[in-house]
Amino acid sequence: MGLYDGYGVDPNYCSTAAMAKQLGCPVILLVDGKAVSTSLAATVMGFQHFDPTLNLAGVIVNRVTSDAHYQLLKNAIEHYCSLPVLGMSLLATASHYLNATWG
């Protein structure tokens, strides 16, 4: 389920966004960074503008391919959305698992 997905099509009924607003909690948005760059800022901006009353506190980017990729995404989001990027998780690849040490 996404941030604005609830019961039916009303984002103010049983969605994560509605619960955060009712409780007065800030929201940290988790977004998919795989195979994108500056376009991810447009996605984040869409979440911002869909409900301007929602307290978006920051962004975490998932499935990032490298530190350079992360810096590109971070710079775009912080520049265009004025939201802090709080961190990332790297994309796990098949070679990552082949090089793993088990036991």
UniProtKB/TrEMBL annotation:
**MF GO annotations:** cobyrinic acid a,c-diamide synthase activity
Tree of life domain: Bacteria
**CobQ/CobB/MinD/ParA nucleotide binding domain mapped to chain residues:** 33-89
- Coiled-coil intervals in this record? none
**Which Gene3D superfamilies does the annotation name?**
P-loop containing nucleotide triphosphate hydrolases
Q: Which PANTHER family match?
A: COBYRINATE A,C-DIAMIDE SYNTHASE (PTHR43873)
Q: What is this protein called?
A: Cobyrinic acid A,C-diamide synthase
Source organism of the structure: Salmonella diarizonae
